[in-house]
Amino acid sequence: RAFPHAFCAATPQGWMRTWDSEGVVSRKPWADAEALLPLLNATIFSEEDIQHDQALEAHYAALAQLLVVTRAAKGCTVYQKDQPPIDISAPIVQVVDPTGAGDVFTGVFLVMMQRTNDVRHAAEVATRLASFSVTRVGLEGIPTSADIEQAVRR
After folding, report:
1. Average model confidence (pLDDT) for the chain?
2. b (16+ CB within 10 A) / e for 99-111
3. Quick check: 148 pLDDT over 80?
4. Whether 61 contacts 79, CB under 8 Å
5. C-alpha pair distances (Å), 110 with each of 26, 34, 43, 68
6. Quick one: angle between helices 145-153 and 119-133, nearest 10?
7. Residues 9-22: pLDDT tens digits?
8. Under a CB-based contact definition with an 8 Å cutoff, are residues 78 and 119 in contact?
9. CA-to-CA distance for 27 and 97, rounded, in angstroms?
10. What is d(CA 70, CA 127) in angstroms, rounded to the nearest whole number?
């Protein structure tokens, strides 16, 4: 509400987790989902963050303006208010290191949305680059300019 003309996006994984005194992380319900989802322009999280709970996913999708649920090797599903969901498949790749794939997806998706305002295209490019990122180890998974140009052209 403090930024009424800004595009506000969230990746709420941190709000869906808790940890104990020994640092063990576990899942917890997203307490403010009903209040925040309608306010956010985009929300992105993994189906693992909601433990593959299809009813909860549908509930969040009904509240959100734009919700993207990533599905690892299966791609993602994009939910937009008053529109049918869009399923984006991922290319088949050999996974070497999945670390950071969600961050790559989110960064690319939001930049592509800002540049093109085309949700499907943004999700397709983000899925391609996130899929490509898992074929490399560590920071090598960050897309290069050439990787991005190639993914955008497809």
Report:
1. 93
2. ebbbebbbbbbbe
3. yes
4. yes
5. 27, 22, 10, 11
6. 130
7. 999 999 999 999 99
8. yes
9. 23
10. 9
pLDDT class for 150, splitting at 50, 70, 90? confident
Mean pLDDT, residues 24-34 taken together? 93
SS3 106: helix
What secondary structure letter does DSSP report for 51?
A: T
Tell me how far apart the alpha carbons of residues 69 and 19 are, in angstroms, rounded to a whole number.
Answer: 23
Pairing of strands 17-19, 9-10: unpaired
Q: How many Å is the Cα radius of gyration of the chain?
A: 16
Give the integer Cα–Cα distance in Å for 61 and 152. Answer: 27
Tell me the two tokens of residue 8: 């506000």
Q: Does the pLDDT value for residue 30 go beyond 80?
A: yes
Answer yes or no: is pLDDT of 152 > 90.
no
Strand partners, 94: none
